[in-house]
Amino acid sequence: MSSADSGKHSSQWTPGARRGLDRQVRVSTSTRRSRFSGNPNATGIASALLKWFPSAARDMPWRRTLDPYAIWVSEIMLQQTQVKTVIPYWERWMRELPTIDALANAPLDIVLRLWEGLGYYSRARNLQKAARILVARHRGRIPDDPSELLELPGIGRYTAGAIGSIAFDRPDAILDGNIIRVFCRLRVLPGDPRAPELNRRLWSLAAAVVVAAKALPAPAGVPRTGLRFAGNCSRMNQALMELGATVCRVSNPDCGDCPLNSICRAHALRAPHRFPTAKAGPKVVQRRLATVVWSTGPKWLIRRRSDDEVNGGFWEFPNQEIARDTDAAAALAGWLRVPVDSLEPRGRCRHSITRYRIVEEIFSLTRPPGRNLPAGELRWVDRETLAAIPLTGAHRRIKTRLVDNHTATGTSGRAALPRPICGGKRPV
Ligand code: SF4
């Protein structure tokens, strides 16, 4: 499982002022040396976490199987997404596409529809590309060799390590935002964890811990009924993730209940919140779109996003980017070559994709098409097709408001003020 589950895997660094930190840590270390000194070693970390994990492991459906495909799907879904969000998606995916063969042979629209709402859709497309490679080269099986895993689309060092350790009990290291936070606190490591030198040290510690776990006896504790772990490497890496998600949280780490508190340097210094050192995120960019919900009789016009765009392969109501101070209706009318008063303002939809904060101005149009259709892969579809095809999250909400409630909504007239159609913050 990877990354940004704020309740589980987070890629955020905790805020911590670098200025004066090293000095403060040196001073604090000397005054508290009687409580704790020295870096916790890999065997100490592994031993404490292996004892703790059986009773602490949360129940997740992918922890009830050793099927490498099911584990791989869960790891990809969990990237940037919380456990509770992923569970229904994973269950539905495993019902509809239970094998690598089924995924490889599924139409792209089915794959994207199953992913719709999870965001970061390149993950779904890469899963299918990788499944097709596995069918062609590995008889539909996931190899346990990390170098072969790393050749597959969408599988990087973290995911290869997670599949290797969780599915095959290999001593493969993993490092995500949660584990980085735990390690930086255990060893009071200041600096940007993405900087090459510190990142190398963190991977090295992750490798040492999982190798140490392999050499230890299996823990005596009994896990929750039904949970299955391939061995100590699986337990170890999942214990690290679990600790970062549930105990060593970004804010308010629960040091009192932490199995590592007797060997944690940040805890001894009462300074967990200072590690890891924060780094500024990417600059937020505001964008504005003009969107047309164009109907003729019982059909609506949709356009497919091209593969090289964000959310490639998804369908949406045609739209065009406009400048911040442009009149949206006039821009849309010019683009579609229709009179501006044929466009009815229907509201506004705010949403985010990665660093982009997007406002879409929505207009409906009911005149028959001439030679004025926008470019791209277009279809006129009925309500049933709209319900079945993959739409981006924002356009699914627009469809709910303006297509499903088409009769009830009626017309508001050009003079009506735009009102919000959707305003979610989740990526679409
Ligand atoms: S003692 Fe506190 S800071 Fe240290 S690893 Fe545990 S929860 Fe994190």
Question: Could you characterize the architecture of this molecule?
Answer:
- Residues 1-36, 408-418 and 424-428 have low confidence and may be disordered.
- Strands 1, 2, 3, 4, 5, 6, 7 and 8 form an 8-stranded mixed sheet that branches.
- Helix content is 42%, strand content 12%.
- The longest helix has 20 residues, at 196-215.
- It has helices at 21-31, 42-56, 68-78, 83-96, 100-105, 108-115, 122-138, 146-149, 157-168, 177-186, 196-215, 232-246, 265-268, 328-336, 383-388, 393-404, 406-409; strands at 285-296, 299-304, 315-316, 319-322, 344-353, 356-365, 377-381, 420-422.
- Strand 5 (344-353) and strand 6 form a beta hairpin.
- The protein is of the alpha+beta class and 428 residues long.
- The chain is built from 17 helices and 8 strands.
- The chain has 2 domains: 21-274, Endonuclease III, domain 1 (Orthogonal Bundle), CATH 1.10.340.30; 285-422, Nucleoside Triphosphate Pyrophosphohydrolase, CATH 3.90.79.10.
- It is elongated and about 75 Å long.
